[in-house]
């Protein structure tokens, strides 16, 4: 009996997202440089979850899905909406960044209370971690209680890194998030037990649209934009983003921010 309300929420989110996506595509297409590659790639990535949701909605409308199956279907739809939502966020970022503005969007610096920030950040991963039976362990240096930064940008960088750690790791693995203060810097490290990245790919993964061959399967549903955007946001925060990886045995991404 709770299904109709949840479905309505999903449908609302979905409509909102599709409208936002359409706006972003128009903005990108209108921008001066040639963005056809990017638009084509994103269009392709976005089509898969949209088709999946469309089919499921139709199946529900046609009464093909039994009451018992509705919960499971909703779960699948929620998963597709997550993917769409992440692609939308990336498209928004890129639209803003590529508008050829003289400066990048200004930082909205504020005092961020780490506890609250992490609670919000980590709870957004409940769903995807549960799906893959992955654990996330957190280790925070007790010296780090607050930091001055643009909370939204920091959230987007860490979200991308944790999403990747989950996406490029098998089921039943652990992701380690560590936060420490070292030599005037705050270091966020995200370590996974996943597929790892070959040395020759380690520099390229920060390039726009670059994806390691192996990840180009529809299941991971990426766009090759996450790290490009994360790197650019990191520069805006006057930090550094680095990767270290042992191919086949996992990766560590380190985000270093100035401790002000
Ligand atoms: P996307 O994940 O959408 O493909 P990203 O820019 O986030 O794009 O990542 C670029 C590529 O870097 C990915 O396609 C993948 O090949 C590789 N990659 C990123 N994070 C990891 C990770 N934690 N482990 C292994 N490979 C990764």
UniProtKB/TrEMBL annotation:
One of its GO terms (biological process) is cellular response to phosphate starvation. This is histidine kinase. The chain holds residues 86 to 345 of 345 of the full protein. It catalyses: ATP + protein L-histidine = ADP + protein N-phospho-L-histidine. Its EC number is 2.7.13.3. It comes from the Bacteria. Residues 41-260 form the Histidine kinase domain. Keywords: Kinase, Membrane, Phosphoprotein, Transferase, Transmembrane, Transmembrane helix, Two-component regulatory system.
């Amino acid at each position: 009996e709770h299904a109709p309300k949840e479905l309505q929420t999903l449908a609302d989110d979905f409509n909102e997202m599709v409208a936002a996506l359409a706006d972003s595509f128009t903005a990108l297409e209108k921008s001066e440089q040639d963005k056809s590659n990017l638009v084509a790639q994103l269009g392709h990535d976005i089509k898969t979850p949209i088709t999946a949701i469309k089919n499921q909605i139709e199946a529900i409308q046609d009464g093909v899905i039994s009451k018992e199956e509705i919960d499971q279907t909703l779960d699948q739809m929620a998963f597709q909406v997550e993917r769409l939502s992440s692609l939308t966020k990336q498209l928004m970022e890129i639209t803003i960044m590529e508008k050829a503005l003289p400066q990048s969007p200004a930082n909205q610096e504020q005092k961020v209370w780490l506890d609250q920030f992490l609670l919000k950040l980590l709870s957004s991963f409940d769903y995807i971690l549960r799906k893959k039976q992955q654990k996330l362990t957190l280790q925070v240096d007790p010296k780090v209680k607050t930091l001055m930064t643009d909370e939204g940008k920091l959230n987007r960088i860490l979200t991308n890194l944790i999403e990747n750690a989950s996406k490029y790791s098998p089921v039943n693995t652990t992701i380690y998030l560590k936060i420490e203060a070292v030599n005037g810097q705050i270091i966020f490290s995200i370590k996974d037990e996943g597929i790892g990245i070959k040395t020759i790919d380690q520099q390229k993964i920060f390039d726009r649209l670059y994806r390691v061959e192996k990840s180009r399967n529809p299941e991971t549903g990426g766009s090759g934009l996450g790290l490009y955007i994360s790197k650019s946001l990191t520069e805006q925060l006057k930090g550094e983003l680095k990767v270290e990886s042992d191919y086949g045995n996992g990766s560590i991404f380190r985000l270093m921010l100035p401790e002000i």
